[in-house]
Every structure is written in structure tokens, then in C-alpha cells.
Design goal:
By secondary structure, this protein is of the alpha/beta class. It folds into 2 domains: about 230 residues, Spore Coat Polysaccharide Biosynthesis Protein SpsA, Chain A, CATH 3.90.550; about 80 residues, no CATH class. About 40% of the residues lie in helices and about 20% in strands. Strands 1, 2, 3, 4, 5, 6, 7, 10, 11 and 12 form a 10-stranded mixed beta sheet that branches. A two-stranded antiparallel sheet has the order 8-9. Strand 1, helix 2 and strand 2 form a beta-alpha-beta unit. Helix 10 runs antiparallel to helix 11 and helix 12 packs antiparallel against helix 13. The longest helix has 20 residues. It starts with a helix and ends in an 18-residue tail after the last helix. The relative contact order is 0.16.
């Protein structure tokens, strides 16, 4: 373990790669939280893919103020594609992937690095909470990501430990330990792991990218650890700013989700389970909620659902024109500014 008194003089061990998970309006609050609660030296690459003008301006100014790399692209990009590009640009022993809708607690990064250094873990997952007040309700505290067979068929099982519990009620049961599950809200990965399992799989446009890596690490007998000394909070919508609606709808669109889920089940030879697809449909409804509610009041539930499906398809179609990768494109996009 590196004594805290020495950390400030050391070369950074970590490159933090920030990607836009599902919206842009949380950008400033999340990034300012990161810098306010992080003591250890680090490098940071901000993958800014298609943010609106105000957010782009904030990030450009923040990059000058804090000295991080602002990788600006004018088009939308699936989060996992952005993670892969960011990871490829990192040179430090560890990469920490962070979504742009996360709030941080004091010492969050120190705890992740200490766990990796002490345990030799390939991946270290923090305690992820959800909603506000921050750091009060558990979203995921490690868990299970595994396959099993039943009557000759192969299925997938996922368990998020203590999901929905108040942190104060389960805190004394949370210890540093091996786990089978992490999520990409925030996670530390030993960069050398990619030499063993390959780069991040960008066929995942919307969902199950974390489960893919969990199974890959398990397949090489790698180690994933849960570190409760590191606490972050995911800010789940609603509310959703109007400027977020296009990207949000594309991020959770039927075609992106179905493509991701079909790839996951095919890759790991699993019986198809539509659990994630059903979740995504409901999660997507946070976009333009007032309009959806008004239509519901006018025409009833069944017609309003058809309207919502039409609206989502129309918005996703518009957003897709502003997205990379496009059909037939295989090379990485160039940043507009760095």
C-alpha cells in the first residue's frame, strides 16, 4: 500500500476515462465532484461525443483549468466504443472508467488503487449507490455474474447484492472481497488485463458490456474485487434535459439494445433472455415524460404505448444520423480537438 503522504509526489498510476453514459446535463456536476474528491495524482481523458454547445464549452474551459485531455467529437458514440478508444490512449498501469453521471466521495480513487495493489486484482469495483441524497441507497455492491445449465440449455444469472437497501442498514456487512460482478458506472481495471482478454468488445452498443467482461475475466481465472471503501453514486434520470433526449433515446433504442443482447447471448452460447430488453423499454420512457403523460390522459394506455413506440423510433432515427459508427465504418473517428 502506498502511504497517503507520498501519493502526491508520485507519477500517476491511473488514467481516468470519462464517457457519456446516457445524457449530457450531469457533465459539470460530475466532473467537479471528481476533482473535489480525488487526492491522488491521475491523468484524465474526457470522451466528449456529441455533447450540446453549452457542455462542449464547459469541457473546453475545464480542460484548460484542470489540464486534462478533452477528446471532442461532433457525433454521438456508443459508450463502450468511447471506453475502448480512451483505454487505447492510456499508458498508466490502471484505467478507471467513469460515467459522466456519477458523484464521488472522498478517497474513492485511493481505495480502488489500494485494493488493486494489495490484492493483485484485475478489476476493482466500488460500492455504487443510486439517486439522491448521494451515497445513501445501494445500487450494486458486487454480486454474481455466472452461467449455468439446466436440461441441456445454458442460461445466465446476475445478482446485484443489496440493491435498493439503505447503505446505513448494510454497511457493516460490506467488506473487501472477491466478487463476480461490477458495472461500468465506475470501475478500475488493470491495463495489462486487456493483453489477456483482448480489447473491449464494441459490438455492445447499449447493454451487457459489463457482463461480457465479467465472464471473460472469469474464463481466464482472473480476479474481480469489491472495495466498499470507495463509494460513488449514479444519478439516474429523471429529470432529463431536452438537449439529452435524442442521445438518450438512441442509447436505449430497440435496435441498439437488441443487437447488444443478441450478441451477448450468441457469444456466450446462452438461451435468450429478454429481461434487459424489457427494462430498457421502461427506462427509455423517461424521455419526454410530460408529453407521454398528456397523450396517456387523452387516448388511454394502449394507444399511448403505440404513440411512445412511434416517438422513440422517430427520435432514434434522427439521432442515428449524428452517430458513429455508421454502417460500413470500421476505423476510429478523429477528434475535432484534443
Amino acid at each position: 500500500m502506498v502511504p497517503e503522504s507520498r501519493r502526491s509526489t508520485l507519477t500517476p498510476l491511473v488514467t481516468i476515462v470519462v464517457v457519456e453514459r446516457e445524457r449530457f446535463a450531469t457533465t459539470e456536476r460530475s466532473l467537479e465532484s471528481l476533482y473535489a474528491h480525488t487526492r491522488s495524482p491521475f491523468e484524465l481523458i474526457y470522451m466528449d461525443a456529441g455533447s450540446p454547445r453549452r457542455v462542449k464549452g464547459y469541457l473546453a474551459a475545464a480542460a484548460k483549468r484542470y489540464g486534462f485531455r478533452h477528446w471532442r467529437m461532433s457525433h454521438y458514440m456508443p459508450p463502450h466504443t468511447a471506453r475502448k478508444l480512451g483505454a487505447a490512449a492510456a499508458t498508466t498501469p490502471y484505467v478507471v472508467f467513469v460515467d459522466n453521471d456519477v458523484l464521488f466521495s472522498d478517497g474513492w480513487l485511493d481505495a480502488l488503487v489500494d485494493c488493486a495493489e494489495d490484492s493483485g486484482a484485475d478489476i476493482v469495483a466500488p460500492l455504487v449507490c443510486i439517486g439522491e441524497p448521494a451515497h445513501t441507497v445501494v445500487h450494486v455492491a458486487g454480486g454474481i455474474a455466472t452461467t449455468y445449465e439446466e436440461e441441456g440449455r445454458r442460461y445466465f444469472r446476475e445478482v446485484q447484492r443489496f440493491q435498493g437497501n439503505l447503505l446505513k442498514d448494510v454497511r457493516d456487512r460490506l467488506v473487501r472481497e472477491p466478487t463476480g460482478l461490477f458495472e461500468f458506472h465506475c470501475v478500475l481495471i488493470r491495463r495489462s488485463l486487456f493483453d489477456r482478454v483482448g480489447p473491449l468488445d464494441t459490438a455492445y452498443l447499449s447493454s451487457s458490456e459489463h457482463l461480457d467482461l465479467c465472464l471473460a475475466v472469469r474464463g481466464i481465472n482472473g480476479a474481480i474485487f469489491f472495495e466498499p471503501g470507495s463509494i460513488v453514486t449514479y444519478l439516474s434520470p429523471p429529470p432529463l434535459a431536452l438537449s439529452d433526449v435524442l442521445y438518450y433515446t438512441l442509447r436505449w433504442s430497440d435496435d441498439w439494445t437488441l443487437a447488444s443482447e443478441q450478441h451477448f447471448h450468441r457469444k456466450w452460447e446462452l438461451e435468450f433472455d429478454d429481461r434487459v430488453v424489457r427494462f430498457v423499454v421502461e427506462h427509455r420512457r423517461h424521455g419526454l415524460r410530460k408529453i407521454r403523460r398528456a397523450i396517456l390522459g387523452l387516448v388511454g394506455w394502449r394507444r399511448s404505448r403505440r404513440f411512445s413506440d412511434w416517438l422513440d423510433a422517430a427520435l432514434a432515427s434522427i439521432a442515428r444520423r449524428r452517430c458513429w459508427p455508421r454502417p460500413g465504418e470500421a476505423t476510429a473517428p478523429q477528434a475535432d480537438e484534443k
